[in-house]
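Q: I'm writing up a methods section and want to include an example of the input and output format. Could you take the sequence below and give the corresponding predicted structure tokens, formatted cleanly so I can copy it straight into the document?
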Amino acid sequence: MSPQPDATPAAHGAAPLKSGVLLDNMDFSVRPQDDFYRFVNGRWLAVTEIPPDRSNYGTFSILQDAAEENLRRILEEAADANAPVGSDLQKVGDFYASFMDEAAIEAAGITPLRSELERIDRIATRRELAEHIGRVQRQYLAHPFIFFVGIDDKNSTQYIANLYQSGLGMPDRDYYLSDEARLQAVREKYRTYIRDMLALAGTANVEQAADAIFALETKLAKAHWTRVANRDAERTYNRYDLAGLRKLMPSFDWEAFFSGARVPLEKVQAVVVNQPSYFEALDRELDSTPLEDWRAYFRFRLLNAYAPDLSSPFVNLHFEFHGRTVSGTPTLRPRWKRGVSTVENAIGELVGKIYVERHFSPEAKERMDALVENLKRAYYEGIEALEWMTPETKKRAHAKLAKFTTKIGYPEKWRDWSALEVRRDDLVGNEMRAAAVAFDRDIAKLGGPVDETEWLLTPQTVNAYYYPPANEIVFPAAILQPPFFDVTADDAVNYGAIGGVIGHEISHGFDDQGRRYDGDGNLNDWWAAEDNQEFRRRAQQLGAQYAALSPIEGLTVNPDLTMGENIADLAGLAMAYRAYRLSLGGKEAPVIDGFTGDQRFFIGWAQAWARKYREDELRKRLMTDPHAPSEYRTNAVVMNLDAFHEAFGTKPGDKMYRPPQERVRIW
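A: Here is the clean output for your methods example:
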């Protein structure tokens, strides 16, 4: 029998009860032994409609909405503050105001990009082409590739430059190459979008230009590595010096590129080329494709990037393809939401300083510190208990775990934005200047020590991450809220939700790619051969489970694309459960709202993944997202855990039942 609550479910949208269980979201007509995801989230799924300006909606979205409202208040106050020129408040306020001045933007039309378009039109030589590709790196326009700085995967005490494939206007190479009818239709609409965007900007011969651009992008797509191939940490680490770069791309003028990007050559001692064969193919296109076609391509890529900052014809055209066609979103987001996102994407950390002061409590950090320490302890015991791992590999796994760094809430040192000039009447200029400041800051890192205080997300981002070369787990302030984390709720739900997230991020250090890095963050095979073999066997068994899952007829989850996240979900929840049991100190948790502590733990995990998708968005995610759809992040995970089956008394014949010999345990 499934447990029944001993209290009447709260009205929809009411605050969570003390247990942290969202009773009003649950569907008690569904047995947890048959569909745990819908048992926990069924009523929410039935009554919730995806907002018209979203492609999907779920627990993360609810937290994002709350953070967005908080940021709106901050930005509106800053815009009205008349703060001193050059102050953080002036920069965030005037940046937001520059986006919200709709009348000025409508009047300006294409004017903000005119000088950039004219610069493109003047490209007359292959050297100038290379210089342009370098120059747009400073605007973070990654076409046809992106140049960036990161920690060296094989020398984690230093930064290194990287080259990564890019340059496509659709989400993935499959959008160009797949025979699936829906993607063929998207391709036709994309070609029309290219033509219409060029025409809107006054481009001549738009049909010919659109054909050339689409043909060029299709060639680039054919050379692109798949997302599965790009997950391979060793395969994508290919170190070249400048002489090696010239041999890799003999037709490309690297000196002109670095000159355009304003990167001193002496700063570039080496570059990691993530996809060498792509750059070989690109070199052939850079040499053989007519300059006229490259100019058209650059013109379109510029328009596509900045269309959301221009007048409404550009905004609407951009949304019609990227929002409605690709993701199925019916309605453009309100202007204030787009304004918040624009400031966030450009200078989010400056807003984050104010956000943290208002919306992050010391108590939350203290509780998180305790949770993280318990999860690490559980992971230690979990490694020790592995029956399949040899003692020497266990020793090295322990050593890596001991070196994990944890960052919670917000960075202890904020980035310097003093070089940024923000003008209240220059939205596109603000975007470009912010990108250039960030780019120059990254270039300055080359040759210097690694900044161990740096964050890759802002505090107001509803997410978390593990960064292998730093061997660190990071939890921004915005995710530390109900239902992920509730300082007033019973521990069980917190361990299932945010504890599962913590365990997930720790587990990325031990997933199919993260396990290849040692405790110092270096790519280094520290595994015994027999342990490598057994890990791969178990991972393949897990992959087979996900390969059988089909959320859309004819499409299944890609087990190779999602492998790292699936391992992190499974291992992370297993360790969160172990940590929860450790926190009880040998005692049993009380029954609250009709549920045992163990049941509330798993309910906490399932509550975190409530989500609905539009079909086009789900289709896109199946091709591009390394995470499985949210339903499977619940059901496919818990079916492998003995504790779940014990908590809910599953038995043969139940849809959630999986025989013990088929349950995968990796960590």
